[in-house]
Amino acid sequence: MNKNIQTQELQAEIRQLCKEKNAVVLAHYYTTGDIQECADFVGDSLALARKAANTDADIIVMCGVHFMAETCKLLSPEKKVLVPDTEAGCSLADSCQASDLKQWKDEHPGYMVVQYVNTTAAVKALTDVVVTSGNARKVIDQLPEDAKILFGPDYNLGSYINSVTGRQMELWQGGCHVHERFSVDAIAALKKQYPDATVMAHLECKAPILAMADVKGSTADMLHYAQQHEPQSYIVATEAGILHELQRTCPECTFIPVPPEVTESQSSDEVLSKGSCSCNECQYMKLNTLEKLRDCLRDGKPEVTVDSAIARDAVKPIERMLSMS
């Protein structure tokens, strides 16, 4: 069967199952384009969870990674939350376990705990306030100037917030395996090829990458910037899945993905010439497929649940963040 026809048939089957089961499908920007095309909502993790909470759906299917499904359950405890693949985890969330955070807190009495939303529910339950890459500075700016803060798990985001706010937050040494792979050499090589291009970088990137960026922010920030400016070329340093939504909403623009870090045996020019610049992808996000999405809707599993005691405490820092942003 023609691949395009097979894709269309799967998408149609998924939409029919959604109708029959009163379900909504959420797709993170980093999932594949065919999943984004048949989702009810496409976006960042917290925005998706909030949109789903405002629907009358009985079932939420989160096409993303596991902590995102947990967040959906926190904001919609009465709804059934499904994921296409339970193995879709997150290197950043995994870098800070609840037991590790508890020990860090115990070692720093009197400190506030601010955690990036890319964390498990158990970690959120030990947190005072959650932030996103889009609102982190706004939230931190509202905390007392003399507040002693433990920030985690993303070191690069925390370091950036320290640099622009003058804070001296203690930072957890965590990172996203995708955004850690971007290199200055690769961006410099692309700038030679596209000298007029605007460089956009996610705040999970390392400081040298952010120093080269004209636009720094979340995936939503990048989208908004491209949508609000005249058509131009962009060099994009974030997971390559965002290119689908960028190109869909800004068809007259050119988007060039930054390749992963060059190995010792390669030059930047070799990597770019091989056309591998779109391969800096999150393998966990790509575990979401149309077939798995169809199957989880049909079978009503795998289901994601959160312990009620953890959920009670984990939702509080999210609610605090929302009140501040």
Q: What is the total tally of β strands?
A: 12
Helix content: 40-55%
In whole angstroms, the N-to-C terminal distance is 49 Å
The biggest beta sheet is recorded as: 4 strands, parallel
Radius of gyration: 20 Å
* Strand residues, percent: 5-15%
The chain-level structural class is alpha/beta
- Morphology call: globular
Strand order of the largest sheet: 2-1-3-4
Alpha plus pi helix count: 16
Q: Low-confidence stretches at least 5 residues in length (pLDDT < 50)?
A: 263-278
Mean pLDDT, nearest integer?
94
Order of helix and strand elements from N to C terminus: HEHEHEHEHHEHEHEHEHEHEHEHEHHH
Key features of this structure:
325 residues, alpha/beta, 16 helices, 12 strands
Describe the structure.
There is one protein chain. The protein has 325 residues and is α/β, with parallel strands linked by helices. It is built from 16 helices and 12 strands. The strands form 3 sheets. The chain has a 4-stranded parallel β-sheet, sandwiched between helices. Strands 6-5-7-8 form a 4-stranded parallel β-sheet. The protein has a 4-stranded parallel β-sheet with strand order 10-9-11-12, with helices on both faces. Helix 11 links the parallel strand 9 and strand 10. Helix 1 packs parallel to helix 15 and helix 12 packs parallel to helix 13.
Task: Compose a concise summary of this entry.
The chain is α/β, with parallel strands linked by helices.
Give the topology.
Blueprint lengths: L2 H19 L1 E6 L4 H5 L3 E3 L1 H9 L5 E5 L2 H10 L4 E3 L8 H4 L3 H10 L4 E5 L4 H4 L4 E3 L4 H7 L6 E4 L2 H11 L4 E2 L12 H10 L4 E5 L4 H6 L2 E3 L1 H10 L4 E5 L4 H8 L4 E4 L10 H6 L16 H10 L8 H17 L1
Parallel strand pairs: 1-2, 1-3, 3-4, 5-6, 5-7, 7-8, 9-10, 9-11, 11-12
Helix pairs in contact: 1-15, 3-4, 4-16, 12-13
